[in-house]
Amino acid sequence: MAGARQKRVSGPELAERVVDAALLVTRLVRGEVGRWWPAGLSVSQVRALSLLARSDGVSLAELAEHVGLGAPGASRLVEELVQRRLVARAPAPDDRRRLVIRLLPAGQEGLRSSITAARAPVVERLAALSAPERVRLSEAMEKLTEVLAAQPTEAVATPRGNRRTTAGRVPAGVGRSGRA
Q1: Distance (Å, rounded) from C-alpha 66 to C-alpha 75?
Q2: For the whole prediction, is pTM greater than 0.70?
Q3: Alpha-carbon span 57 to 151, nearest angstrom
Q4: Which residues on neighbouring strands pair with residue 98, listed in sequence order?
Q5: Sign of the torsion angle spanned by Cα atoms 119, 27, 23, 80
Q6: CA-to-CA distance for 63 and 52, rounded, in angstroms?
């Protein structure tokens, strides 16, 4: 519509809408992520499996940064995944003092099933949108992913004193383009 007035939204208003939507999606997805596995997978475990699926093996420090945990929390997370036979730890080929964490076939299947389960209620809710609304939302999500992923990673202290990163990350199971 030529000549139609565009609605203006301030930065803080837009940020509030993005965060509110993210919280709603997180609540919706969190409940589904744990359902596929008898004992359930946490969102942190799914994020760890997602990183490992895109890598040929990572260090505990890399995994901790990606998931947003300190070293002790990441170590516990990896131990749980090792016990469930979803990942394996092995000495790094270039430095036997360093451990590398790799995804096992059961972990790959667990990740696939968990992501599929997490997306199902989102697909169900988005079905209410018209085709043009879906296109606009998709374009907006691509732009949002691009803008958020372009920010430099910054370490901040968590309430327990651990360090975690806050920006430049893309959600588990999603590539930099915003697609899985």
Answers
A1: 13
A2: no
A3: 25
A4: none
A5: negative
A6: 8
Q: Do residues 18 and 144 lie in contact, with contact meaning Cβ atoms separated by under 8 Å?
A: yes
Number of residues assigned to the chain: 180
Spatial neighbors of 24 by CB under 8 A, at least 6 apart, are none
Helix, strand, coil abundance in the chain, percent, nearest 5: 55, 10, 35
CA 144 to chain centre: 15
- The whole-angstrom separation of Cα 5 and Cα 26 is 33
Q: Which of 15-24, 74-83, 93-102, 116-125 has the highest mean pLDDT?
A: 74-83
Structural domains of the chain sorted by starting position, each given as residue range(s) with its CATH number in brackets: 13-151+158-165 (1.10.10.10)
Tokens of 39: 């004992």
More confident residue, 167 or 32: 32
pLDDT at 79 over 90: yes
pLDDT confidence tier of residue 98, bands split at 50, 70 and 90: confident
43-53 vs 105-126: helix crossing angle, rounded to 10: 120
Percentage of the residues of the chain whose pLDDT score is greater than 70: 77
